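Cross-posting from the modeling subforum.

Setting up a comparison between two proteins and wanted a second pair of eyes on the formatting. Protein 1 (sequence, then structure tokens):
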Amino acid sequence: MAADVKLFRDLDELERDAGTALARSARPQMFDRLDWFRLVHLFTPPPGELLAIRSKNGAASAWLFLAQEGSEAFALSNWYCLRFGPVIDGGNGEAALDAVVRGVRQAGVSRIFLSMMGGEDPLPAALRRNGWMTRFTRTNVNWRIRVKGKSFEDYWAERPSKLRNTARRRAKTAGLRIEILERFDEKAWADYETVYGASWKPAEGSPELMRQFVEAEAAAGTLRLGLAYMEDQAVAAQLWTVENGVATIHKLAYREDAKHYSPGTVLSVELFRRAIDIDKVDMIDFGYGDHSYKRDWMDESAPLYTLTAYDLRSVRGLLGIARSAASKLVARLRNQ
């Protein structure tokens, strides 16, 4: 059966074509949903024009969301996205992905640059099957822990003693008041933004995107917004979501001037307790970034990759390979 491939330059048109296939009800992973791609396209679009490719092959469908600039294409993604890849639904995903790759070529793309991708992602193999050269470069890491069947006390007993002792001491001396909200609250959100602005972190990349994301997750019942207060001043804040058995830590920050009280650690304890004992999650995902403190809270790490691909059937793709090889040679010679 020949696959049906369609290119979209408008997400409303794509939604009419997809129906509910990319809605929350059908997609357990939030970064596979059309609503997420809408936020990225609206607030943090990559360079170029939207290019969404859909293929249908019997019972299988696949989508790939890109931004096209000339003969190059980039992931329709941003720094908030913890995992990027094609979206596959049912049936023979391999055949559907092959058709998506043909759609990429049909759009005039000869070089692809995608990040962050999991090592198990099937797209690189689909590209190679269809005449592309791929380079999968490890660029980051994802930390997580499986807690299914454990109580918080079980989990906490497995943590390093230094972490447990710090949390216990600071909880006693700091006298923090902890709030964990599932609803959207204007004051709480203002407190979150204030903490973030007074933290060690760089300025928020897109406050508008974050607010719309939080409002949507609150409406869906998945939001867990944690705040730690000291004498009515918010000193630490964390943004989690809990859905389909997975708690995801999206953002965390504490006021730099309250660092010696370890308010982030104290707040984390209560959010972990909530996720494990009340939400009964199977896994907690700490997002990407190989920060040393994550090792104290997590057990597993998985590499994340950047995919660069060149179309070997395209003159521009071959030129791109040549330029890439030349750049590597120059860098190697400079380092000698």
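Protein 2 (same layout):
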Amino acid sequence: MISVADERLQLRLYKRIVETGLSVRKIENSPKDSTLRKRSRHPSAPEFQSLEDKLRVALGTKVKIREERGSGEIVVEYYSHDDLDRLLDLLAGR
């Protein structure tokens, strides 16, 4: 049986996937993507420290910014489904 929190999480993820137009292959492969693994080995650049601090304060959780060759990723940590829901609400402006 799926909990209500899990159902809400699935629905939110579904909506995000539809809104951003991600393909099934992209979703399935993204955590295994060698580019993402390569980027995650690099520590945050010093110039991103103040941006990480601002995001950490705004979101109330640990944030890392990683850049490689002009593009990058922002990693936002969460610690429970409720915490993820809270972050999604903040990022969606609700």
